[in-house]
Design a protein that fits this description.
236 residues, alpha+beta, Glutamine Phosphoribosylpyrophosphate, subunit 1, domain 1, 7-stranded antiparallel beta sheet, 6-stranded antiparallel beta sheet, binds glutamine, hydrolase activity, acting on carbon-nitrogen (but not peptide) bonds, in linear amides, glutamine amidotransferase, hydrolase, EgtC, EgtC-like
């Protein structure tokens, strides 16, 4: 399973979320603490953020199929990249999936940034245009974008019904909303004074980190954090 992180709050340097924390995505790329599937996340990384310098926030991405720990140019530039809304991931590719930048989260439809932590049988996914790769996560992202993020919870439950072995932890943000699902893997939330972090695992030992229960949807907006249970998958 990959590890991912989302941020909605004040304008902060991307490095302060991804590189600097003692157990942030950089350390999680080689030594995750809570990962249940796979030992490390060396098959690529992606950092997406909303650029608010123009009239409307625009999603921008930097993705690579190389391990995050070796990306010295990104390490140099990341302190100068600031955003109020970030979706970032380090990847442990599922067997059989391509290792290429286009298969690496976050994916986008031009409005949302989306990361998937998990695995899903591609045969059960509704066909949708615009997938960036044949990777399961890219096809899942296209299906979620086509259905609309307002339907994220229903979409996850339907796909889980079609593939009971699927693990469907999704993070998505559009600059004003940050959504996360816990479905088969860990998801944690940290409410800071200056914003909210959703992450596969805590990036430090702050006692304010809370675990999101499995089969839940989390929505973060300026109004706060809301957690909603998702329906359990139906039996055979
Ligand atoms: N299945 C996705 C991939 O191959 C995500 C893998 C993961 O969460 N480790 O990239």
């Amino acid at each position: 399973m990959c590890r991912h992180l989302g941020w909605l709050g004040a304008d902060v340097p991307v490095s302060s979320l991804v590189l600097d924390p003692p157990n942030g995505l950089l350390v999680q790329s080689y030594s995750p603490r809570r990962q249940k599937h796979g030992l490390m996340n060396a098959d690529g990384w992606g950092v997406g953020f909303f650029d608010a310098s123009g009239p409307a926030p625009v999603p921008r991405r930097w993705r690579s199929p190389a391990p995050l720990w070796g990306e010295v140019s990104f390490h140099s530039v990341a302190p100068a990249l600031r955003s109020h809304c970030v979706v970032a991931a380090v990847r442990s590719a599922t067997a059989g999936m391509p290792i290429e930048a286009s298969a690496t989260a976050p994916f986008t439809d031009g409005r949302w940034l989306l990361s998937h932590n998990g695995v899903v049988d591609r045969a059960v996914l509704p066909r949708a245009p615009g997938a960036e790769s044949i990777c399961d996560s890219a096809l899942l992202a296209a299906a979620i974008f086509a259905r609309g993020l307002d339907q994220l919870g229903d979409t996850i439950v339907e796909i889980a019904n079609a593939d009971p072995n699927a693990r469907l932890n999704v993070l998505a943000a559009n600059g004003v909303r940050l959504l996360g699902t816990a479905w088969g893997d860990t998801l944690c939330v940290l409410r800071r004074d200056d914003g909210v972090v959703l992450a596969s695992e805590p990036y430090d030992d702050d006692s304010d980190w809370e675990d999101v229960p499995d089969h839940h949807l989390v929505e973060v907006t300026a109004a706060g954090v809301r957690m909603t249970p998702l329906d359990p998958p139906k039996g055979p």
